[in-house]
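Batch manifest, entry 17 of 40.
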Amino acid sequence: MTDAISYKPSLPRGPRLAIQTYVVLLKPRVMSLVVFTAAVGLLVAPTSVDPLSALLSILLIALGGGASGALNMWWDADIDAIMSRTQNRPIPAGQVSARAALIFGLILSVFSVVALGIVANPVAAALLAFTIFFYVVIYTIWLKRRTPQNIVIGGAAGALPPMIGWAAATGTISAASLFMFLLIFMWTPPHFWSLALFMKEDYSRAGVPMLTVTHGHPATRKHILVYAVLLAILAILPAAIGLFGPVYLVTAILLNARFIWGAWRIYHRSDAQSARDGFAVEKSYFRQSLVYLFLHFAALVADAALGLT
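Output type: structure tokens
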């Protein structure tokens, strides 16, 4: 983080706007993915949890994820002010100071971890603490501005919530929760690289060494295809060995066939084609990747609800 960027001056605001600003600091879109995958991890675990404890656990995991988002915005405020996708975030927009975001993120981090340890168990709390540390320190501070592998390694932070949910229910880590982690971990690179294809100029201006910036579009397209194939193998494997149920197996086969086909189309695109249609195929693939992850985890819940796992 640098102090070279001048942010817009803070504007007068009422209590309602202030609350909305702090909610935005939590990255609610990202937090919704955290809530969903953590809830799936908790719901498919082979241990019943009373509804209140389950609800509180998911809420605390969400707060921990939100705390990570606030600390990420604190550190990245300088490059957020440069990138068109992020320049309206609270700090560069002058809605909140960087110091306030830092304090807010730290307080929420400590509270969410300690409270989860009380509501659930120490294993879940330790995993949540590690998730926050990994996202803020390993990814945001260390990797993001240093290597094009930033999103590959850093994706581990976003992949941990289902393991935390599972641990909140069982107090353990299992093969099933590890596979859920690996599914998100392997999904993250093609998901974000498809975004990077049509956001390259933003990353370039901000000095973020995303793969599109350091290696160009052709290499990024090739990486997306390779990861899509590896992801398909990983996604189908647990059902093939009987760890996940038949609903998941059918879902995984269909979704991964389509995902690989989409990656194949991107691989055969040229820069000229992408420029002509405004990266329409890449943007469609990015949206498809969100549906891909949602349906895989929804299938896990369906199998559990039907007693098939």
